[in-house]
């Protein structure tokens, strides 16, 4: 081997090692891509939080100044009723049968005793 061939092999070997460190070492190209991806996720999350913060600020302003909004919020979130509201409470009948409308008796014989013939009397 000639002296120039050895020098070329050493130079290309050194360049290959350096390229590996640049691409995959600490703070290399792979880390840069991961950090850019993380930055984009944080920017998106920050934008969502800013929108939510603006909406909450608007709700606070309305709660401080808008009686209609206060009443709407009290009814919707706290279950409160207004002074002139009429409340209807629907209760199931006390002696109602099963919810499916059946009588609990065998089909075809409305007067049949379900325990008849079982010997449990």
Can you tag this structure with a few keywords?
mainly alpha; about 120 residues; 3 helices
What does it look like?
By secondary structure, this protein is mainly alpha-helical. The chain has a domain at 3-78. The protein has helices spanning 3-24, 29-65, 67-78.
The stretches of 5 or more residues where confidence is low (pLDDT under 50) are none
Main β sheet profile: none
Total number of β-strand segments? Answer: 0
The overall average pLDDT, rounded, is 82
Strand content: under 5%
- Molecular shape: elongated
Q: Supply the helix-strand structural class.
A: mainly alpha
Order of helices and strands: HHH
What's the quick description here?
With about 120 residues, the chain is mostly helical. The protein is about 60% helix and about 0% strand.
């Amino acid at each position: 081997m000639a002296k120039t061939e050895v020098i070329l092999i050493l130079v290309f070997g050194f360049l290959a090692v350096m390229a590996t460190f640049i691409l995959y070492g600490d703070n290399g190209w792979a880390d840069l891509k991961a950090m850019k991806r993380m930055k984009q996720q944080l920017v998106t999350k920050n934008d969502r939080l800013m929108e939510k913060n603006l909406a909450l600020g608007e709700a606070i302003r309305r709660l401080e100044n808008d009686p209609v909004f206060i009443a709407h919020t009290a009814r919707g979130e706290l279950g409160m009723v207004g002074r002139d509201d009429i409340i209807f409470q629907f209760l199931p009948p006390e002696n109602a049968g099963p919810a499916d409308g059946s009588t609990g008796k065998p089909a075809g014989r409305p007067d049949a005793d379900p325990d008849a013939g079982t010997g449990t009397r």
